[in-house]
Structures are given as structure tokens and as C-alpha cells.
Amino acid sequence: MDSNDKKTEVFLSLLVASQRKINAYILSVVPNFSDADDIMQETISVMWKKFDHFEIGSDFAGWGVKVAYYCVLNHRKQKSKDASVLNDNIFRQINDVAQQRQNETDDRIRHLRRCIEKLNSDDQRFLKARYELNNSAKSLSVQMDRSVQYVYKHLSRIHHLLNNCVKRAVREQEAV
Q1: Do 86 and 126 fall into the same domain?
Q2: Residue range(s) defining the domain that contains residue 123
Q3: How far is CA 11 from CA 46, 61, 81, in A?
Q4: Is the same domain home to 14 and 42?
Q5: For residue 47, what is the domain's CATH number?
Q6: Quick count: other Cβ atoms within 10 Å of Cβ 22?
Q7: Which end of the chain is more exposed for a tag (fewer CB within 10 A), N or C?
Q8: C-alpha to C-alpha distance for 88 and 84, rounded to whole angstroms
Q9: What are phi and psi of 64, to 5 degrees?
Q10: C-beta neighbour count of 78 within 10 angstroms
Q11: 86-133 per-position pLDDT tens digit
Q12: All residues at 6 or more sequence positions from 1 whose CB lies less than 8 Å from its CB, including other chains
């Protein structure tokens, strides 16, 4: 495999892992889906062109969101004569809230992963079967030789445990 192929492979694997986060950011600040899609394509194009300047091992999704921010600004400049474009002050406020929410979401996901690790192995396997392997409640009930109602109650109990664990972790983080 030559170095261009390796570069492409690394870029694509990082992009696939980060694309939802970048797209979520764009959708949070651009109300039109068609425009958001165009901006996402432009963002990917710019990221590819500037990939040689990206430091492997650093935050690819964060870098992608930063590139997307500038692509959104560029898009807004091009559309500035359109009455549907928000004024710059409102855009900055929305952008700041979107960035804050993304950071909060990242923290909550990190806490959730830690909380899942604290579950007993049976509950971890149960979550994996339901969410990673995408088994339905009915399918799980058959596999476990239990009622569908049992599966839902078991999921509810685990969700409750995880929710409490994440809330506790967020409170502890805020107290620091």
C-alpha cells in the first residue's frame, strides 16, 4: 500500500468515526437540511485538502467541527442577501450554545461508558445484545426464555441505574 492509499484510509476511518458529530454541529446552526448537506460536503472537501496539516492523535472530530464552523461562515456570507439568514449576533449565540451542548454531550457519553463498565457482566451482555447487536425485545425474550415484559423491565432497571450513575458523575464533575 503506497502512502497516498494509507493517507486515504486513515482519513476515511477518522471521518467515519466523526461524521455524525460534525454533521450534528452543522445541523444545529443551519436550519435548512439542503444547505446543511452542502456544507457537510464542503467541510469534508476542505478537511481532505488540509489533512496533511492535521496532527494524527489529536481530536479529529473537534478539528472537523472547527472546519465546519468556517464553512458555515462562508455559506452565510454567500447567502447574506437572503432574508432567511440569521444576523451575525444571533448566529454567534446559536453557535456558542451548540458548542457548549456538544461538549456536554461528549462528557455525558464519556460518563455513560464508565457507568456501563461498572455494571455487572450479565447486564453488560444484555445491553450489548440489545443495542450493539440490535436484538429486539421479542428476540431477547426468546433467547432468554423470558417474557417480553421481563425484557422491558430489565432494560428499564439498567437504564435507571445508568441514568443515576451519569447524573452523579456530572454533579461530581461540576463540583470540581
Answers
A1: no
A2: 98-176
A3: 12, 12, 36
A4: yes
A5: 1.10.1740.10
A6: 25
A7: C
A8: 12
A9: -65, -40
A10: 10
A11: 566 677 777 777 777 777 777 888 888 999 999 999 999 998 888 888
A12: 9
pTM of the model: 0.53
Residues 60, 51: Cα–Cα separation, whole Å? 10
The C-alpha cell that represents 147 in the structure block: 417474557
Q: Which three cell numbers stand for residue 124?
A: 453488560
Q: Which residue has the higher pLDDT, 131 or 157?
A: 157
Considering the domain architecture, whether residues 78 and 155 belong to the same structural domain is answered as no
Between 4 and 21, the more confident residue is 21
Measured in residues, the chain has a length of 176
Q: Is 122 helix (H, G, I), strand (E, B) or coil?
A: helix
**Which of the listed residues 90, 117, 147 is the one where a domain comes to its end?**
90
With left for phi above 0 and alpha for psi between -120 and 50, is residue 37 left, alpha or beta?
Answer: alpha
In the numeric block, the cell 437504564 is attached to 159
Q: Are residues 25 and 63 in the same domain?
A: yes
- Considering its fold, how many domains does the chain have in total? 2
